[in-house]
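Students often ask why inverse folding is considered easier than folding. One informal answer: many sequences map to the same fold, so there is more than one right answer. In these notes we will look at a single instance of the problem. The structure comes first.
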């Protein structure tokens, strides 16, 4: 027995796991926009904001978004009013070919909004300013006063560089924007609670609110980390450098004793950063990509650990597929524990177990390896 596997260490590892289970972890709320890979990019954020700002669009939420933006900007600029909404545009081109993310025109103001999420604030702000001033001049009617040019950088924390600020730009955080819009959206939803766009708007605001939230960290979590990090390192070393290699050695020993001339090799690694797997194969094979794999994984549906065995085969399927199907019929007890995946010349046959028995796992791997080994040595 190694030092890591001593009785006292196993007890301390168990105590560490018990402490972790009792830890109250603060998690980030998932939104519809977290599902898509592009959910946090600036272009779709700008387009959606433009859509909900414009009451003429088909969301039937009225001007609730504009009311929130208007009240926020009036407070920021200390103006009496911005007047009614006249126009909303995105990707507005300047004379120099630069593009303004969002432009909001009201009766009394022209509002330029640059949406920044994870990019640096290195846009051509002077060109944006020149465009805004020229547009105000070009569109002014004889009996009207000049509209006020308002320049906003919408960013994660609301902070902008001094050089940009000194040129008349204001920084506003997504958090402040959401806080200004939410009461007006709530009022609109009370009037029309079954509006599907209300759900999307609510999810969009939650998405904006969570942009700069990488997950709040509680004091208990910090305390747990500092007090237990060394024990975690020792537990991780035990799992990946002690117990998993011992499981691999035991099954590889059984393979060598059960299959004549089998020169067993193993590869130990992790999926998803923490799910250990062991690949068993014969070093005499020409196709070293084939193998029988044992893995300890977390089931996404039940959120519990499962133990899986699957056979991977990368070649023309031929008679091997028929032989594998026969062995599956012979050994499969519960169809819900078995899965098959076919993709091009790659076939996976997988068994799931809720409980781990090294004897049963070894037996199943040997049966599968007999078929695969015979194919790789005698057919290829």
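Output (designed amino acids):
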């Amino acid at each position: 027995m190694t030092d890591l596997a001593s009785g006292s260490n196993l007890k301390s590892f168990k105590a560490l796991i018990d402490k972790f289970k009792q830890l109250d972890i603060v998690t980030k709320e998932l939104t519809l926009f977290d599902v898509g890979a592009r959910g946090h990019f600036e272009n779709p954020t700008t387009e959606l904001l433009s859509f909900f700002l414009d009451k003429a669009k088909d969301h039937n939420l009225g001007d609730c978004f504009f009311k929130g933006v208007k009240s926020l900007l009036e407070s920021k600029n200390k103006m009496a009013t911005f007047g009614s909404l006249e126009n909303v545009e995105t990707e507005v081109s300047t004379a120099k070919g630069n593009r303004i993310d969002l432009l909001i025109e009201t009766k009394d103001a022209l509002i330029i909004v640059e949406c920044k999420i994870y990019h640096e604030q290195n846009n051509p702000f002077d060109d944006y300013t020149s465009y805004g001033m020229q547009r105000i001049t070009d569109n002014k009617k004889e009996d009207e006063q000049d509209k006020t040019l308002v320049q906003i950088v919408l960013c994660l924390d609301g902070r902008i560089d001094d050089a940009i600020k000194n040129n008349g730009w204001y920084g506003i955080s997504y958090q402040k924007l959401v806080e200004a819009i939410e009461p007006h959206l709530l009022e609109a939803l009370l009037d029309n609670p079954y509006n599907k766009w209300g759900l999307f708007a609510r999810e969009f605001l939650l998405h904006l609110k969570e942009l700069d939230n990488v997950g709040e960290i509680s004091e208990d979590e910090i305390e747990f980390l500092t007090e237990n990090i060394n024990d975690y390192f020792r537990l991780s070393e035990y799992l990946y450098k002690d117990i998993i290699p011992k499981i691999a050695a035991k099954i590889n020993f059984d393979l060598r004793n059960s299959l004549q001339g089998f020169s067993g090799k193993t590869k130990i690694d992790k999926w998803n950063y923490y799910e250990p797997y062991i690949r068993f194969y014969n070093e005499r094979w020409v196709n070293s990509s084939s193998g029988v794999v044992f893995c300890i994984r977390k089931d996404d549906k039940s959120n519990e650990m499962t133990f899986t065995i699957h056979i991977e085969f990368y070649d023309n399927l031929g008679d091997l597929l028929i032989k594998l199907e026969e062995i599956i019929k012979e050994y499969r007890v519960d169809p819900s524990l078995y899965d098959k995946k076919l993709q091009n010349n790659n076939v996976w046959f997988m068994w799931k177990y809720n409980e781990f028995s090294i004897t049963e796992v070894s037996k199943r791997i040997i049966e599968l390896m007999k078929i695969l080994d015979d194919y790789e040595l005698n057919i290829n």
